[in-house]
Amino acid sequence: MVRDLCMFSKADKESEVVWFKISYENTVHSEADITSLFAEKELDMRFAYLDSLEDPSRGKYVIFTEVEKGRDVSDIIKELQELDVVLDVEYGISKNQVMQSVEFPLSLFGERAIILRASTFVDILKIVNENVSQAEGVQMLTGIKSGTSAVRLLRKVINIDENNCFDLLRELFMAAGWGIIEYDVDIRNLKGTIRTGDCFIADTYKNNEVPVCAYISGFFAGFISEVTKRTVQVYESQCLTTGHTFCEHVISPVPEGTKHVPRGELD
């Protein structure tokens, strides 16, 4: 998964941060040609990432470097543009020492995205718990919608089916910083468990008397149901916040024709 975001905290007060966003023809030597030019100009690439997800025939190379204050980078831009593989070059100079966003608005799978601290997300959950009746059900249904949307977005860039959905789910969770997943699921019968380590909700919540990851359970339910086109229910059987070493979510099918319902209403 590609994140259209770069941040750089500048330590050298006598330098400036310059970022380059280079669109290029995707050949076997494109990245090498671009990197070699930066080496020739004695520019140290402090951070960089490649992205060819949106169009396999084109690539995007985002590079952060530091230069001495006042250095003219127009010669670098000109030589980049003259490379046969380069299609377009954008750049920017940051004189500050905090952060620099290359993309605005930020985009994730073609939709607008934001940066949100885990503690802010958990604060929202706590406010919901304190002020909304059936708060767990609300969080569950919100997660279901999010999980369903995630599959629909993934389908735009990759084939996803019952054979690879859990591997993709694991990679998605880790890439998003949500947690580390292990699963033991009988996909044919829609039964099994998903364990999450370092779940961002539980890890931020710390201690609690009851499990707190209803949103995550809902996400799993929406994700699996959208892939399989069969409705499943998911509930958290144990949680890091209640003294366990990991969070565990139990998956089971619901009667055909039944829509998603909050935990407890099928009992």
Structure description:
The protein starts with 14 loop residues before the first strand and ends in a 14-residue tail after the last strand. 33% of the residues lie in helices and 26% in strands. The protein has a four-stranded antiparallel sheet, covered by helices on one side. Strands 7-8-10-9 form a four-stranded antiparallel sheet, covered by helices on one side. The chain has two domains: 15-112, 2-Layer Sandwich (Alpha-Beta Plaits), CATH 3.30.70; 118-253, Muramoyl-pentapeptide Carboxypeptidase, domain 2 (2-Layer Sandwich). Helix 4 (135-154) packs across helix 7. The chain is elongated. By secondary structure, the chain is α+β, with helices and mostly antiparallel strands. The protein has helices at 30-40, 74-82, 118-131, 135-154, 165-176, 200-205, 214-228, and strands at 15-25, 45-51, 58-68, 86-94, 107-108, 111-112, 180-186, 191-197, 232-238, 247-253.
Briefly say what this structure is.
With 267 residues, this protein is an alpha+beta fold. The chain has helices at 30-40, 74-82, 118-131, 135-154, 165-176, 200-205, 214-228, and strands spanning 15-25, 45-51, 58-68, 86-94, 107-108, 111-112, 180-186, 191-197, 232-238, 247-253. Strands 2-3-1-4 form a four-stranded antiparallel beta sheet, covered by helices on one side.
Labels describing this entry:
single chain; 267 residues; alpha+beta; Alpha-Beta Plaits; Muramoyl-pentapeptide Carboxypeptidase, domain 2; four-stranded antiparallel beta sheet; 7 helices; elongated; disordered N terminus; disordered C terminus
